[in-house]
Each structure stands twice: as C-alpha cells, then as structure tokens.
Amino acid sequence: MPAQFSIAPSGSLSVAALLLINLPTVLENSASAARIVFSKQSPLLQLPTDFVSRPVPPFQTASSLRNRARGAFQDGDKSVIHPSFPNDPLPMWVVSYWVAMSHALENQRDWRASHDWVYDRFDVVPTDGQELEIIDEVLDVLESLPWDAPLKGFGAQTDLRSTELRPLLGSCPIHGRVLDSMIAVVVQRMQASDDEDLQSVSVESLDFADILRLSDKRWKSYETDKAFIRLRTIGSLVGVPDDQECILQLDVWSVHKSVQFRTWLDQQYPWMH
Asked: Is 267 exposed, middle or buried (0-12, 13-18, 19+ CB in 10 A)?
C-alpha cells in the first residue's frame, strides 16, 4: 500500500484520541460490498481523486477479500472491481486499505457506543454514590488505553486485545478471552495461597473446547496430532494417586466430544469418576 494511503489510525492511540479523529470515509452496506470482484483488467495508473472519501466495505467483507487476494493474483487477476464504480479497476493493494480503514471505522463506532454508555451512567447513578468515582476512573482509563493493542499480563495468556474489553462497557455478552483472563487472575491468587488444595487448581482457556470439537478423523490420530499436545499433557497430569480427587468441569457446545473425552479418560484412568 502506498504510504499516502496508510491513513488508518494506529492501534496504539488511546480510545479518547480515536474518538476525536474525523476519518475521511464511512462504511458502506454489506449488500453492495458483497458484489466486489477481482478482475483481469489492468488497474488504473492513478486512483480517482475522490477515492479516499468513498465508502469502504465492512471489515468482514474486506478481510474475506484479502484472504482471496493471493489466489486471485495467482489466477491472473490484476485489479478489483467495485459495483458502484464498474469503470474504475482498482489496484489489488486497495484491499489492504479497505481492511485497515474498515477495522478503524468499526472500532471507532463501537468504542463511541461504549464511551456514550459510560457517560449515560451519570444520569442513572446516585449523585452521592461511589459509582461516580468508578465512572471517572473508567474515563481516565480511556484517555490512555490503546484502542486496539495486545494486552500484557494475564491478557497475554489468552491473546487478549484492548478491543475485546469493550463489552465490559455495555450490556452485551463478554468475550470468552476476557473471562479467561479474569479467571487466570483468580487462579494465580489461589496457587499463591498456603492451601495445598488451591495450589493444585489448573484452568484452561476456552480454546480447550475447540479441541474437543475436532473431527472424528483427527481424534483417531490423538497420540500424534499436534492439536492434542495440550490435551495429552493434561491427560498425563490427571494420573493422581488413589487418595486424591480429580475434578474435570467441561462447558462445551458439543456433548459428543465431551463424552468422547470422558470415555478416553475412563479407558486411561478407570479409577476416575
């Protein structure tokens, strides 16, 4: 992408700074964006003068185009055709521009909704309550929190990014990795205690459930498939003495794989219940 089109705000900017930026374009609707295609026409030597101000496709559409771009290029495609501008074959790099801009636009919209939700709390909490202090603290955090950056500490254990904290400022479901990180803090404190029972606690991320839902073909290669490395490690750790108790609590969508894992445990460790 030419440097002059790398105008999407950096993810290291604070949320407050992102909300102040007037991005030069807007998101278009998914229906028209879905008709964007690759073409074997040679791209324009110079982009239309109003290119930057034109709407960009939603992030999901732009990401899908980026995933297909390499294959399209290998098939001989040279440009991208947008249905709204059928006579303007655009260079392939505009897909990267669309990805960056749509990502920034969607996050700016969502962060603004979260920011407004925090401000709305001023109207619903008691004027003499502790909630006012909490609201002020949250607004202070938004002055320094990067709008899209990987988080350190416990967030690093689950690849948590700052964008995934937005549901905490609203009434929508919380992302699984946020819960993983919150639980990781609790587990660390338990393992640091003097209670031996608490020290033996191990909590896996919610990605653990994805392994349980792998296909039967993958499960037949359980002993060699790299996807099961962590699961095999856990399996070796549960071989505890007979006078100790091992509890496995699994919350997964696919009961079949949960039962399959339990069956495997029963075969390996028949004393478990």
From this structure: exposed
In 71-173, at which residue ranges do the beta strands (DSSP E only) sit? 79-82, 85-91
- A 10 A CB-CB count for 124 gives 7
- Residue with structure tokens 């478990």? 272
pTM of the model: 0.69
Average pLDDT for residues 102-125, to the nearest whole number? 92
Reported as type and span, the H/E element at residue 140 is helix 131-142
Contact assessment for residue 92 and residue 122, using Cβ atoms and an 8 Å cutoff? no
Residue indicated by tokens 């002055």: 143
pLDDT level of residue 267 (50, 70, 90 thresholds):
low
Residue 256 has pLDDT above 50, yes or no: no
Q: What is the pLDDT of residue 212?
A: 75
**Nearest alpha carbon to residue 146 among 157, 156, 161, 158:** 161
| Other beta carbons less than 10 A from residue 38's beta carbon | 21
Task: For residue 222, give Cα distances in angstroms to 38, 89, 233, 255, 267.
Answer: 41, 49, 12, 18, 14
Q: Locate tokens 């108790």: which residue?
A: 245
First to last CA, the chain: 58
Angle, vertex CA 15, rays to CA 59 and CA 172, nearest 5: 65
- Amino acid in the structure at residue 205: S
- Give the bridge partners for 91, in sequence order: 79
Do the Cβ atoms of 230 and 211 come closer than 8 Å?
yes
> Phi-psi bin for 76: left (phi > 0), alpha (psi -120 to 50), beta?
left
